[in-house]
Every structure is written in structure tokens, then in C-alpha cells.
Amino acid sequence: MTYPEALDYLYAQLPAFQREGKKAIKPGLKNIEQLCSLNGNPEKSLRCLHVAGTNGKGSTSHALAAMLQEAGFRVGLYTSPHLKDFRERIKINGIYIPQDWVVDFIESYRTQVEEIQPSFFEWTVWMAFTYFQEQQVDFAVIEVGLGGRLDSTNVIHPLISIITNIGWDHMDVLGDTLVKIAREKAGIIKAQIPVVIGQASEDILVVFQEKVNQEQASIFDVQHHLHWSSWKIQHPPIRVVGELEDKITQSTWTIETDLTGAYQAENIATAWMAMDVLRERYGISIEPSLRIKALKHVKKITNFQGRWQCLGENPLVIADTGHNVHAFEKHKPVFDGWNTGHFVLGFVGDKDVRAILCLLPKSGQYYFCQIHSPRAMPLHELAQVAEEFGLVYSLHEDVNVCLDYLRKEVPVDGHIFVGGSTFLVAELNQII
Q1: Same domain, residue pair 60 and 96
Q2: Is this model's pTM higher than 0.70 or not?
Q3: 272 lies in a domain?
Q4: Sheet holding 48-52, edge to edge
Q5: What is the CATH number of the domain that holds 351?
Q6: What is the distance between the alpha carbons of residues 396 and 380, in angstroms, rounded to a whole number?
Q7: Which domain holds residue 387?
Q8: 377-423: per-residue pLDDT in tens?
Q9: What is the pLDDT of residues 95-147, one digit of tens each?
Q10: If 63 and its partner were Cys, which of 261, 271, 325, 426 is the partner (CB 3.0–4.6 Å)?
Q11: Do residues 230 and 174 share a domain?
């Protein structure tokens, strides 16, 4: 096989949630357990940090990897979905898994895997475990794909379980209340393993505490331990600076980070808390000075893209892969501060588009773009919703053509946002 042929095989033979949605999911851990048993259970030899949550999983995972890398460790990072290249999912110290390795792995196990008939996601999780074991990483940061309890990544026995937050997304799979969704996410909590909770309301914390009690684990609530006394976005160039305070020790650190976006405050605090737990529980100490140095260049260190990414200034162009109501709630204060926002949006069919549009300014100008995916919401349906809300809008078949036009038409002090779907951001030519 060539590398393109190997990818064609993966996508043709195995269902992928990224392309097909809910029907691609094969709930339960039977398949991934069978896969891992084919080559001696590589996941059992890994020292893992396991990251779940509705939003912020990717950013928190990359922040964790960056801090560990800055301390001199060899760090495997598994995240999903990818934007451009399948290999974005599996990295060691920011470097993609080699194409030849992917091809050899598929060819080596193709016959055995076809007998198991796993999902695309199950195959790729197993591939990551195998690659990380072979390359003898010091740590593996593993992002949950969907939910937690039945997610394929949940075969690991991590050093720390991390849950960033709970919000409305994938209700058709995880449940129709936040408590039900939280119970699915809580499924990554393991016996006597510490769990770090990023943001959670009291009723959600009760769910996590119940699971922690069952597992005789311990819980670390970030909101109880850490506090941001300030957090502001600066540009140009676009950066974020804040003062992070430890409520227990009264220590304060000035953090500057390239993880831009107001919502990143939660993610950085969660990653910082996880480093504290590594020190307290396992004696693995990543000094604050190294953490601060790493957070300044997370994107560079880990090769991270798509999260509140600045694609240009004068006018300011921001792209973000946040794709649910919870994500847009975090964006709302920023959007409300824009004099006139130009919103380039596309959505997949299973998102609550009406709830998202309710969070966006009525005074904005809207440019709905067709996503080229089987899961995409058609433009005529978006037009109907836009009419209901009385929005000023236009329809576009190509996001890049639309963005090129806006760059010429929007004043230099204007603002352009591109988002609504990972798929739409992935279609941008500037995302490499």
C-alpha cells in the first residue's frame, strides 16, 4: 500500500464518526480489547493522562503535553478529530506519526482486524497505543473521543483522569440531560486514581463525587484550588495574559499563552492542576517556571491548530473549531464586544443551530458556507433558520472564496469569525 491507499482502506472498510455520525459508533470496549490483545496489550505499559469533557479536551491535552515536553519528557499525544492530515491524531513531541509506520501497521494486521470489524476510531486508538509503546514514550496524553464510559480510550489505566467540563453536545448518544452526560464522562474515573475536574456546577459535582466514592478515588476540583485574578486578550500579535492564583498556598503566577480565546482560562487551569496532582501523588514535579515557559508556546511545541486561531489582522480573522452551544456560550462575551461582527458559519446536521444563533449578535452579518461532508446541514436549511431569526445573511459554496471576499470588503478595524464546525475550519486553505 501507499499511504493514500492505506487511508482509503481505513475510511472505506471502517465506519468513521467524523464522516458518518452516530451510525459509525460501536459502543462498548469489546472490540478495542480484542484489538489490543493482538499485540500484547500495548496500552498496559503506558503512563497515561486521560482527558474527557464536552469542550476543551483538545486544548487541555495539548497544554499537558507541552508542559511535560518542556520538562524533557518524551510525550505521546492522541487527539481527535484531525483537520487536514490523519496523522494529526497521533504525535510524539509534536511530530506526526510517520506515513510508512501507518502503512506497515495496517498491512501487518489487516486480515486479523477485518475479522473483528472495528470502527475507524477503535483502529486509530489501538494504532496510537502501539506506536507510543514502540517509541517508548515517557507519558501518553490520551483524549477521549466521545463520552467516556464506553469510549475506546477507556481501556487505559491512567495516572490521572481529567474531566474539563460538561455541556450540551451529542445528546442523541450520551443522554438528554447534563446529569446523564456527566455520568457518561465520569466513566473514565478508575479505582484509586485521582480525578481532576475543571468546571462543574454543584449537581454535576455530585455525579462525579458519587463515582469517586464508588471507586475509592480522590477528586481535585480546579475551581476550589485555582483562581484567575485577571485574564485578557492582547493583539497584535494575539496573545492572552493572566494572573493565576493558588487559593491554598496563595502563590501567584503570570501566565502568557498562545492558547488564545477567553475560554482557554479554564483549560490552562485544569492542566496546571493536573501537574500539581502529578507532583503530589507520584512525585513527578514540573516546576512552575517550566510550565509557564511551555504555556507561552503550546501551539509551536505540540503542533496545535484550529482553536481561536488568528488567520489575519486588519481586519482580525479568527477561526475556531468549537461546534456546540457550550462553546458559543464561551465566545459570546467576545462577540458582544465587536462593533460589527462578520460570521462565516457552517454546521453539521445534528447540532442545535437555533440555540447557537441565539447566542450571536443580531447586528452581525452572516455568511453561511456549505460544508463538504455527508453530515453537513444543507444551505437551504440554514437559510430557513436565518430567516426565522431575521438575520442579514448570504449563502456560499466555498468558505475560502467567501473569506477572500470578506478580507477585501471588511474595514481594517473589523472582525471576522469562521467556525460552527470542525469540518468548516478544516476546509480553510490557511489551516495546514
Answers
A1: yes
A2: yes
A3: yes
A4: 95-96, 90-92, 75-78, 139-143, 48-52, 160-163, 195-197, 219-221
A5: 3.90.190.20
A6: 11
A7: 309-426
A8: 999 999 999 999 999 999 999 999 999 999 999 999 999 999 999 99
A9: 999 999 999 999 999 999 988 988 888 999 999 999 999 999 999 999 998 77
A10: 271
A11: yes
